[in-house]
Amino acid sequence: MPRAPINGTELFYDQQGEGEVLLFHHGYTGSHDAWAEVVPAFKDRYRCIVMDARGAGDSAHPAGGYSIRQYAADIAAMADHLGVGKFTYIGHSMGGVIGMELGLNYPERLDRLVLVAPAPADGIQYPGMEAERERARKLWRERDLATRLEEAVALAGRPDADLLRRNVLRGFSVSEGHFEESWEDLVNYRAGDRLGEIKTPTLMMAGAADGLLPANLADFQRLGNATLHVFSRVGHGMEYEAPAEFNAVLADFLEHGVVTARTLMRKLRESQAALSR
Q: What predicted TM-score, i.e. pTM, was given to this entire model?
């Protein structure tokens, strides 16, 4: 189990393949397991790096540092440790917000940015959130697998009970700091009014059956250089709910970059200008 000394703690990582670097990061209370059906599809063409955040997965459980800003700094430091200059970053949920932080404060490190059902750029907010959070806290402290698994299956657009069970167990294993402080930072994070500053070519992926869809669409519209894909009948975990479709969309973006009406019109004008010379 490889770990790297990163910013005062030990973080798990793994890498497969050679070439241009893809760096994958999981969501809140998640782990590198999320990418188990993604990396094999790309390792023959890319150097694929997965890692676990402090306090999660197979990483150490330090006393502090559970913030979006620190997670982004940890990613940059992990890239340094592995001798990586620039990379394409692919982050799910909380990992998507970390991607926004990278886009704002480490743009020189990024080739591309993929935001997979990211948490909202202006913080998690919904009616009844405090009561629901207290309930989630109770289930986490009691390690109530049956209830958490029932909920996970119900909220998945394309449920796979065995896979979701693994995800729930990983969630139970995170540190107290990761569970509490990461959530607090996800609630209080505010970067929406700066998303237009992110000029890195960006793909936003969203699930049509995900409660975060409205926030994802709003954040997409504020990004400075982005394209969008919405998966039908998929919830929050598209990389494991619909891995074949996910891999196809990611591969297309890696090959073609941002394709929008604006980019197509620009190509048309460039072509017309070339023909008129």
A: 0.94
